User: What shape does this take?
Amino acid sequence: MTRFAALALGLLFTTGAYAQSDKCQDVDAMDKWLTEKFQEEISGAGISSFEDITPNSYTEVYASPAGATYTIIRVIGGMACIIDSGENWAQIPFVGPASPPKRPS
Assistant: This one.
């Protein structure tokens, strides 16, 4: 592994919500934790297209109001796992469905 890759992985795992969580928990508990600890609210969602890898998975993006922090979670079978988090999220206008898809059960 290159020094850069090792540094990047080290930064990923030591900043933001990722470093401060158990990484996976019940989806409702994760939602509450992100809202209370980081003031992040859901700002985007979608159903995974990788059915052969993660069937019935759902990805959600949470962001704080000013974009100071963000967290991306993957929801599978009622459990949510953080797959990325960081700072300086920029919301880009999107033209698409009026409401996000429903979480798979």
User: Anything to note?
Assistant: The CA atoms of residues 1 and 7 lie 10 Å apart. Residues 27-38 form the longest helix (12 residues). The chain is about 25% helix and 30% strand.
